[in-house]
Amino acid sequence: MEKKLQRINLQNIPNHIAIIMDGNGRWAKSKGMQRIFGHRNALTAIRETADTASDLGVKFLTLYAFSTENWNRPKLEVDALMSLLVTTLKKELPEFQRKNVRINAIGNLSSLPKNAQKVLANVIDATKNNTKITLSFALSYGSREEIVNAIKNISKKVVNNEIKIENINDKIINNHLYTFNLPDVDLMIRTSGEQRISNFLLWQIAYAELYFTDVLWPDYRKKHLYDAIIDYQNRERRFGKTSEQIETNE
Ligand code: IPE
Ligand code: IPE
Ligand code: MG
Predict the structure, then answer these.
(1) pLDDT tens for each residue of 195-219
(2) Which atom of ligand 1 is the closest one to the Cα of 67?
(3) pLDDT of residue 74 exceeding 90
(4) Which ligand 1 atom lies nearest to the CA of residue 27?
(5) pLDDT at residue number 133
(6) Among residues 35, 155, 184, 199, which one has the fewest Cβ atoms lying within 10 Å of its Cβ?
(7) How far is the CA of 198 from the centre of ligand 2 (A)?
(8) Residue 66 beta carbon below 6 angstroms from any ligand 2 atom
(9) pLDDT of residue 250
(10) Environment class of 180 (CB within 10 Å of its CB; exposed 0-12, middle 13-18, buried 19+)
(11) Ligand 3 ion: nearby residues, β-carbon < 5 Å
(12) 3-state DSSP call for residue 219?
């Protein structure tokens, strides 16, 4: 493991990592257990990933925990996920404080159960001055819903003469997304072997590097994040320019 860490260039750590934490259900099934068992075992992976990211100097970590489409799952599973969210946030608050973690949430939060909204608001407020890393949970999050919501809010401001149509630009759109206080994603990781985006951060991943791994989320550990970052560091991010321009810093 130390060997792996030595291969990481600490001067080129992705500033914002987003993770589609997938495969809890299959992990549980492979052990002859109910899907919920997989969700419960996702917590160790979340803790270890957040700690590792923070130690490496990642400033923003965004985790896809529940999508707008996940509301269509069986009620039993949805209820279990919501109660897991509430108990975990309550339990982890002292740890967030000790580790200087700022908690943030993105998504259509008003659709969450009232007690989840309350606990979430409390944890966000209690950690708002923490500075080591911003850990964002995407909850009832869907990128299309986010964009629709942004368009509605921008349109209202146009109607009220607060924004001129000709002034609408990237920045204004950014400022109306749930991620208004987060930078663009540098590295997006998806576990469990699926290679799709599933309605996550469509706008924000415009130039993100994508990394897919077969590891099921409950098995995700420090070494897996190291692997993803090493892979990321071996890529050339050109942002539309040529390789020569990047090399000569033009
Ligand atoms: C990801 O694991 C967690 C959530 C979507 C809440 P899944 O529950 O999607 O697990 P699989 O994909 O069915 O294995
Ligand atoms: C995406 O996983 C959502 C989360 C990880 C929270 P899903 O398991 O819901 O995605 P699909 O249905 O396989 O695309
Ligand atoms: Mg899944």
Answers:
(1) 999 999 999 999 999 999 999 999 9
(2) 5
(3) yes
(4) 14
(5) 99
(6) 155
(7) 6
(8) yes
(9) 84
(10) exposed
(11) 22
(12) helix
This prediction has a pTM of 0.98
pLDDT confidence of residue 131: 98
End-to-end Cα distance, the chain: 37
Q: Is the CB of 137 under 6 A from ligand 2?
A: no
- Contact between 59 and 16 under an 8 Å Cβ cutoff? The reply is yes
Ligand 1 atom closest to 42 (CA): 3
Domains belonging to the chain, first-starting first, are 7-142+187-235 (3.40.1180.10)
Q: Which residues are known to be catalytic?
A: 22, 70
* pLDDT tens figures, 40-71: 999 999 999 999 999 999 999 999 999 999 99
pLDDT at site 62: 99
What value does the mean pLDDT take over residues 137-161?
Answer: 98
Order of strands, edge to edge, in the sheet holding 133-141? Answer: 101-106, 133-141, 60-67, 16-20, 187-190, 209-212
Binding site membership of 217 for ligand 2 (Cβ less than 6 Å): no
Q: In the structure, how many helices (H) and strands (E) does the chain have?
A: 10, 6
